[in-house]
Each structure stands twice: as structure tokens, then as C-alpha cells.
Amino acid sequence: MLKLRSSCVRSAAALLSPAAAAQPCARLSTGSQQQHSTFYEFRTYCIRPDQNAAFLKLTNEKIHLRTAHSELIGYWSVEYGGLNQVFHIWKYDSYAKRAAVRAALAQDPTWLSDYISKAMPMLTSQYNQVTYLVPWSHLKKPPQEGGVYELITLQMRPGGPAVWGEAFHAAVSARDAPGYGKLVGAFHNEFGPLNRVHSLWWFESADQRAELRHKSHTDPRVVAAVRNSVDHLDHQENKLMFPCSFSPLK
């Protein structure tokens, strides 16, 4: 009996050994898994202050050369939260498709001569991020044209959606459901800073946005959801943007 007990003890010890404990657990996850291959590239360009008007004019005239290769979701001029900036979103079905588009653009003489050669000297920097729509969000069009857009970017603490996903969802839903803005889409980063999420909102005007923002601060549901989300937040920023005349989202 003693030998049997000793054997059982040794077996139990083996199960609890560091090597055994280090084995990965299939149940571990950082959150909801991406279900679709479609992704959205966020691009931010900073323009030389003396070239802002010229850059927007050139882009308006030549953007058709670019949209002939892939789908443009929206193109905005940043009014608050970043001077002399434009922000645009491009849709791709796969990384192979994006690579093919970039290769084709590099071989497009009209694009290179009529746009790139003129636009690049007007810029001071370019920045991009690859994002996916979060599983509970769908890209929506605003109810009408002629409004303004707010891009809210949240840098969440490390841990992934399994840690902060529900809190982010609740904070966005608490603002969207009562109509404190029209949610266009909610995104999470795949490339760029990780644990970063974005929500894109539409308003009739900057003044309407200010009015609804003030009103939401008196709504107990919104206040509670935001406070819960803040527990997972590292920092945040936002931009108020006007859609360009050639932007599909207006």
C-alpha cells in the first residue's frame, strides 16, 4: 500500500512539474476571434502648412487614379485634434490583394507622374494602421450627407479583448443606442499599436456634437459604462473631421 501511495504521489508530482505546468491550454484566448478577412487600412498624412489647400485640390482632381485600384471608404480633412492632416480609410479583402494593389500603383505611370511626384513634396509624414471591424460592429452610412465625423481612439491596457472588450462594447453601445451620435463603425488594431480601438461617429454639425456630448454626461447609463471602461484605459484622443468632396462617406 505504501508503494502504491508513493507511486501516486510521484504521479501527482509529475503532473504539477514545471514542464507540465508550462503546457499551453487550448481554452486560453484574448477574446473574440476575427471572422472575416476584410480589413481597413487607416492612413494619416501630415501636410506642410503652406501646402494644405494645394494638396487637397490635387487629391480632389486625381483621386480617381487611386480609387481605380481599390475601394476608398472615406477621406477627411482634420479640423480639430490635428492641424494640416488628412485621414482616409481603404478597404481590402486580403493582404495579398493589398500587396497586388501596391505593386500595380508602383507600375502606374500616370499615378506616379500626375499625383505621387507632386503630392509627396507637400507632406511631412505618413502613418498607417491596419484595423478590423470588431465582431459586434458593421460599417454604416450616416443618415444624410453634409455632417462632421469624430474619430475616437482608445489605447487600452495590455490584455486584449478578453480583458477590456466587454467594457469597450458597453461604453460605445451606451452612447450609440440613445442617439448621442451615429456610430459608423468600431475597429481594433491588427498592425500599429496593439490593444488600440477606434470608434467613428457622425454628427449633423460640430455644435450638435457638443450638445449631444453634454447631454450624454447627464445620462447615468453612459456615465457608468464610461467609468467602467476607463478602468482599462491607458490614454485616448479624438479628431473632428470634415469629409472631402470626393469622400464616399460624406
From TrEMBL:
It comes from Scomber scombrus. Residues 40-137, 149-248 form the NIPSNAP domain. Belongs to the NipSnap family. GO terms for cellular component: mitochondrion. This is Protein NipSnap homolog 3A-like. One of its GO terms (biological process) is mitophagy. It holds the Pfam family NIPSNAP. InterPro entries: Dimeric_a/b-barrel, NIPSNAP, NipSnap_domain.
